[in-house]
Every structure is written in C-alpha cells, then in structure tokens.
Design a protein that fits this description.
alpha/beta, 2 domains, six-stranded parallel β-sheet, two-stranded antiparallel ribbon
Length: 206
C-alpha cells in the first residue's frame, strides 16, 4: 500500500519516494521473541531479521528504526552486519540520546544511525554530546521531536544548526508538525542558496 501510494502521488518508488519504518520492536518483544499479534506470528530474532530482509528485497526501504528490542544486542549486531550497507539502521530505544550508549553501539557495530531527541536526553548539552558521539562513530544523525508536542519550532533550528542532516517531526497531519516544516522552509529561504540536499539513501553524517 505504501508503494502504491508513492506511485499514485506521481512519484517513482525508490527514486522520488522511499519508505522509512519505525518498528518499535520493544513493543513486540517478550523474552527475545517478537509477537506479531495481527499476523498471529511468533518470531525469534532470526525470524524477525529474515522478515525485514525480505522487505528490503521487495520494497524501496531506506531506513529502519528500532528493528529489535534494546536488550536484544545480538539481534542488532547480526542485522547491522547483514543489512547495514543497504539501509539506515536507526537506534532510538537502543541509544536513548546518550553519548556513552552511542559510543558503545559504535564499538559493537549495532547500528549505523542515531536518533537524537533533546526531550529524551533532558538537556541540550546532553543531546549535543550524543550527536557529537554519533558523528564521531560515524553514524548518520536524525534530530527528532516527540509526538504530540507543541508548535515550538526550536527543533528545526537545532537540526540545521547542528548539521544533523535529517529531522523527524512527523507527516503533514497536525499543526505542531506543520509549524516545524514551515520553519524549515523559512530557514532554507534565509540561507539564500546555502542549503544543500544531501540525497536519498543511507546517510553518513561525517
């Protein structure tokens, strides 16, 4: 259905439009098994990896966030080894916007991108430290808002000012999201040609 929607929008799947998934696997996990209730399936980490690798073969997926529960370290390691060259593998619950956790994940090759949530870290200083650790890794970086927050647009300025390369604020559905997208357009205009589109596919925020 997502591929069909891209096509009906007049875009070319995999070229003009790609898919980004947030699996939030911690919500599915029970004792290192993953319960897909609506599909009536119960998968171990290998089965979960096979499912997502099949999706990568069939669909234009550019990014997968939280493909495994945060305590399933072996699942993260194996999946990143198998798919890290093909897709952006984003740590959110795994990294919790924590510089030490980002550095540990880099050493163990658990993912190749970090979600940076100032609200999750608690302070801008801690969020900036996590982003710096991610760039040192080097991971791609995504500055992220939190669902249901206000129309404050500070997150747009942080994403640009920190040169994160990517931002996550949600689709064009509610006013607090549109406020941030509109602010990004205003920032682009103010840069007078200095803004640069980094391109599609897995990004390395070096």
């Amino acid at each position: 259905m997502l591929v069909r929607a891209i096509d009906r929008a007049g875009l070319r799947p995999g070229i003009d439009g790609v898919i980004s998934l947030d699996i939030a696997a911690a919500e599915l996990a029970r004792y290192v098994r993953y319960h897909l209730v609506r599909d009536r399936r119960d998968l171990d980490r290998d089965g979960m990896a096979e499912l997502m690798l099949d999706w990568l073969d069939r669909f234009p997926i550019a990014s997968i966030e939280d493909p495994f529960a945060e305590d399933d370290v072996e699942g993260w390691r194996r999946f990143t080894e198998a798919a890290g060259s093909r897709v952006q593998i984003v740590g959110d619950d795994l990294l919790t916007t924590d510089a030490a956790r980002v550095s540990d994940a880099s050493r163990e090759a658990l993912c190749n991108a970090a979600l940076i949530k100032p609200n999750q870290a608690g302070t801008l200083t801690e969020a900036r430290a996590a982003l710096a650790a991610a760039k040192q890794a080097p991971f791609a970086t995504i500055v992220s808002a939190r669902s249901g927050e206000s129309e404050d647009v500070s997150i747009a300025h942080l994403a640009v000012g920190w040169n994160a390369g990517q931002i996550k604020v949600g689709s064009f559905a509610r006013s607090e999201r549109m406020a941030k997208w509109n602010e990004l357009l205003r920032i682009e205009e103010s840069l007078r040609g200095g803004a640069r589109y980094v391109g599609a596919g897995p990004q390395s925020a070096r």
